[in-house]
Amino acid sequence: MQNLLTSDAPLGESDRLERLALGQANQAHAQTQTMYGPVVQFMQLPGSDLEQFEFISPAAFLNYLSSACNEFSNMLAFPNNSATLLLYGDEMTPGNPLRADGGRALLNFYYTFLEFPSWFLHKKDGWFVLASLRSSLIKQINGGVAGLITRIMRTLFVDDSTASLSKGIFLKVGNKTELIHIKFGGFFGDEKGLKEFLDYKGASGVKPCIGCGNVVNFEHKVAKRDLGEIVTLAEIDRTKFIQMTGPEVYRMHDRLEEIVTTRAKGFRDRLDGLEIKWGVNYNPHGPLADRALRSIIDPVQHYLRDWQHTFMSSGVAVLHIASVVRVMKAKKIEWDVLDNFSKEWVYPRTLKPHPDLFGKKYFDRKELKVKHFSSDVLRIIGILNMFMQLVLKPAGLMLADCHCFNLLHRITVILQRSPRMTPTLHATLTGLIDEYAEPYAKLYDFAIKVKFHHMLHLPDNWLSLGWILSCFVTERKHKDLKLASLHVYRGVEHTTTTNFLNWYMQEAISGRLRFKCNYLINPRVMSLPAGCSHAHAAEPIYTAGSMQTQCGLACKGDLALIKLPSSDASGDAGAQISECVGRLCGFFTSNDNDFYANVELFTPVDTDGYDWDMSSPSSEIINATMISWLLTYMERRPNVISICMWRR
Fold this sequence. Notes:
The protein contains 17 helices and 26 strands.
């Protein structure tokens, strides 16, 4: 026994040294020195137990990443060497998300630049981690969440330090170093997050919209009466909204500050009354009170709503689905018919079918709730609309409901397929949302809430950004932070930040994290038959069964919409673009730049392109950029499929 213990003694020391070496390796990227200091730096938090916490400095991190990864540096050729920063924040719970006390909840902050290509903005890796802070500490910070936002914005844009983004940052762009000028583009997030960032009352106040000076909450629920210039959440006429400006919001906060400063008799009751009336909270530590931030933050223009939370997360679409379910029950439409109908649809391989998508336990008709995640709600919209268009409408049932829900499906399809916001698309979406809002307000006036009004502002928000963005991508980003914090119980901010940074940089440097729109997944060299050659015989051909494309991960066997050039009446080839449905049969490339797909193209059964004949497909080789959308479909009769698409 003594000999055994003696022989084990050196192993204990070896294990200790190995753990020490691993810990130092995990800190290496965080401690890397750049021209802007170490990658992980400290931010002061007066008033909290931490006093300061660690964050990933954007200037140091981007400088380090651009010098370490050529693919990333090639993406930084921004127009006029300027970029617009978008800041996102949201809570996340590592481990059990249903934990009652929320003791391990983290408030995460991510950012991106609007000048990145659309495919990168819609990938989780296109959003960079700024900081992660325990939610339990937020109340101890002077000013709460708004006070934390003030510290973040001052650190990034105001404080006189070498890492301030307002001075610009030097980044490796391709083969040379450029000074990139950074400006602030806005706060992005859900309704709860945005109101906490800027100290608005939001849905809990009488004035729920900071952009409209005359829209009030609750009044639409009482007897209708003439309110003068005051309008309710049910109002859909945009011309009746009195638009607010950023300076007007600042003047309201200054007036609240003046009341607190004078401390006249009864100032507390007066302050509370004005906060409720104006929809703005007085917070001496918030961004509205910081004069240095007023040239950077516009509290109206930088309040950026997203369509995921507006529609899918206890939003308009959820209320609409629950209302339709309530009407179906009143019409005595058998639920099993819808449930069986939903199970006939085939999804792309990356979308695993939900085993009980239309289970009764997920639908609360009384409370107008749908107990599904946002991605499942998006799936329900398509399937439920197809049920209404293919089953209910031909039977003459719920015709007005069918028309209204079809408009909702059409809007969501456009939002998923059109990342770039143009003036033409802005006009189209504004018209569609107005057309949708009118029958919705008439049919489901009992289901009008604050997000119904926010829906009307979405096209203008997107036009100011130039993109149609949603929080689906940032919600996916939470998974990376969960992995980094799942088993962390001490030094949460430090360990979570360094764990994530180490993982991200290792993935980028090794090439496992690709900063490209198109690339093959697990490619292999294709063996050509003896005597067979191709145009670039010196280059091997790589093939794969799945590929990352501009519309997501495409897999062999998926059905997709394919953009095909066609001829107009004058014979001008490529004069217009038509779309065809095809099955993806494989992907290949010879140079890692030009990617192609083998497809089987189907024949349309009708002129609208809803039904397609698969009996005699034509084989084609197309450029992978022509894959525009992955489809959900069902086989209505032998060799004929219907695609899940809104109906005209």
